[in-house]
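Hi P.,

Sorry for the delay on this. The queue was packed all week, but I finally got your sequence through. Input first:
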Amino acid sequence: AETFTFEDEEGKSLSEIADLDTMVTVVDAGNFMKDFGSWDDLTDRRIGLNEEDDRNIVDLLVEQVEFANVIVINKTDLISPYDLEQLDRIIQKLNPNALVLHSTESRVPLSEILGTNRFQLAEAETMPDWLADPRGEEQTETEEYGISSFVYRRNRPLHPKRFNDLVIKGDLDEGFFAGILRSKGLLWLASRHDCAFDWSQAGCSIRLNPAGYWWAAAPEEEWPEDEDQIAEIRANFVGEYGDRHQELVFIGQNSDQHLIESMLDDCLLTDEEFVQGPAVWEKYEDPLRPLESENEANAL
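Then the structure:
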């Protein structure tokens, strides 16, 4: 999709001569969940853009599923009806708006993938819909297939050392990540009080990157001029630390929401630590610091 918006040296782009109609992703029914738990990089599979392409195979899988307008689950004849229904539910959780088709030998009605006008750039540039608050979920889905989603929200910063210890000790079979298929959201780290961090996890792949300054920390000249936008920003302010908060959305299979929340709560600052304030927080041991640079942050 980015190819269509890229302009060459003469200012021309592919979008001037062609339309991007539908984004289609084909999922291998028998290997999707196996690949979801893989540690392989794209270079390990010899499908990287170059030798320096260090993306995990899981990152690519998730990007393709979340960005698609149509998802074709192929080779459905090679798995059981139960496994197919379970895979279907997981994919629908990752991309609620996509049309999901089942096929053998990739045979699907052409009318569902050609001339549909399903792709809309404005929608593609926004966050995946599964990040929306997952309310009203049918209980039958959770009970029968063990697939569920929830949002973790707190208005207190994470201790970087305790959070790092939680993350590095977890794996897909036990600990913090047991049963978690996908998680994404914003983190507030005590040691970098002014900077929001984008958390993205899929299977065994974890990424933490600067997302920008919290509005409460951003210079006034970087605030929008529109009064409605300003009012919307201030509506999210809580106490003396403004819009700083934790907000993580989880999609899991047979995961324990209460245990996950409890583990994260243990990483938050205690009452005693919280009252000491940012001047003390910034001195905390921070094993996460080498992962990114605050100097690249911009206002949210």
